[in-house]
Amino acid sequence: MLEIGSLVDGKYKILNKIGQGGMSVVYLAMNERANKQWAIKEVRKDGVKNFDVVKQGLTVETDLLKKLHHPNLPSIIDVIDGDGTFLIVMDYIEGRHLESVIQEYGAQNQEDVIEWAKQLCDVLAYLHSRIQPVIYRDMKPSNIMLKPDGKVMLIDFGTAREFKETSVADTTCLGTQGYAAPEQYGGQGQTDARTDIYCLGATLYHLLTGHNPGEPPYEMYPIRYWNQDLSSGLEEIILKCTQKNPEDRYQSCGELLYALEHYKELDAAYKRKQTLKWRSFWCVFALAVLAGAGAMGFYLAEKNVTANTYDAYLKEAETLATTNPEECIGYYQRAIALNPMEGKAYEELLHFFLWQKNEESGSSSGRAVCVFSDTEEQMIRKALGITGDRRRSNEEYLKENGAAYSKLAYDLGIAYFYSYDGTGNKAASRKWLGIAAEAEPTEKLNEKNITRAQNLYKIAEYYDSLGVQNQAGDSMVSYADYWKDLVKILETDTASGDNHVNILLSYKELAACLVSKATDFEKAGVTRKQMEIQLNKAVAILKDMEIVKGAANADYEQEMKEELLNHIAAAGEIVEATFNTSNIATAEQGGGEDTAAD
């Protein structure tokens, strides 16, 4: 056993023992460096028969939990495989097992049980909605922790399994007698989401009646057999959950959640049916109304579960961003396919491409980059296209959510303008900047963003006409106007105190334009002094720019700042050379005239 006060793995100080089971001891530990408490489960080789088998099971459990992220599930922080011992470091959950609550206080308040049931429905829906659905299989009061704030946590994933459609039956019989569904016993078929619904129904039965279904009389009577004050609607729900045939139960946690949220309506229907039997017409009418309301209710419940699943996909993507980029992208794509009208998945996928997935763009060399590669651009276009069995594109669905569509248009416009293939694609940015430029201000897209989109859209328009001449041989682009709009963007970004990245990108565009188009600006009447004023402002702003270490994009900002100072210096040399060449040409022209006059 671990000694109180000892230090585990050089960072976890054992404070005291908080629990002990048949094969493990649980300790409260403190990570003094992080000033946070954790729970450490210890399984010792000398205290367990078949230690290797137990260890293998614990490894499977911890590997499974590491992939799960939900507010009603504990997180596995660390696994320490020592000599003769196996330690699991996890969230410390302050509270009590519901089993101990029942033992001390008996049957629980109906409203409390319903609230716990809703939370458990939500976490089960999350487990069932994963790409490889997780079937928990051992729901019971002793596996549910009640926290002081009323929140419940589902613990102990020792019997959970990932669902495989190709399996005809489970290979082992796991679960707890009284709570386990019939199919959890050998030869009864495969466990699936409906198995967890049965186990939850049995758990609710125990919580509401105080009678353990795993003890005599080994039968779950209707809950009102024990207490007539309990809801008849809730009684119907539990009876449906615990049907022996899975087809007769609720088929999803969405259905069960809706029923729990409307159990009083089931009571009302029950009483109305008893008192109004003779009015057959109205009974039929009432049932039709209830059926319609039920259909709508199932839709709303499904919508609620869809939202939870969508959020779960985004959380999974965020977790996998640095460890498994390809699977991360897959989760974003699944979220988009699940709800193409919601903009968050598109935005986060684009952000991931720009700031995290840059191995195709040079990050392997140690450079901090923000590049929107051709491959990534194709993935975004595919995400906005038609997926699944839909006849409309995802972009068409997203358009119905105007605020989200405008925000994505702005983000995409900026990405194309500055970051496509590392240099920007102004022509490709026009569509998206044009959409953002015409948007109404929202919480997602404020007036400053819209103004910036309008300014950049003008710049993008110029690029379509660069080098193009009309029938008279004149340039289609007014470089004087082009310069004014370029300066306007710089003044807008710096005066508004915009974020560092926007300011850096704006001055990057200035430097690039002067390097490639200084002669065109000079011919349009832009003076050397005007160009140098902007370059000098850029140098002053960059030197005063304080980049906070550890902040988001700090590495990128610092590197871009250093590179930009070099680019501005190069642009200054180009400007100097441009006007020197012009002066020489003017002097030579003037000298020629003097010679002629002489």
Automatic annotation (TrEMBL):
Q: Which residues form the Protein kinase domain?
A: 12-266
> What PROSITE patterns does its record include?
PROTEIN_KINASE_ATP, PROTEIN_KINASE_DOM, PROTEIN_KINASE_ST
Keywords linked to the UniProt accession: ATP-binding, Kinase, Membrane, Nucleotide-binding, Serine/threonine-protein kinase, Transferase, Transmembrane, Transmembrane helix
Transmembrane feature ranges: 281-301
Molecular-function GO term, any one: protein serine/threonine kinase activity
Q: Which Pfam families match?
A: Pkinase
Can the keyword Methyltransferase be found in this entry's annotation?
no
The positions annotated for binding ATP are 41
Record's superkingdom? Answer: Bacteria
Q: Which PANTHER family match?
A: MITOGEN-ACTIVATED PROTEIN KINASE KINASE KINASE 20-RELATED, SERINE_THREONINE-PROTEIN KINASE YBDM-RELATED
Protein name per the record: Serine/threonine protein kinase
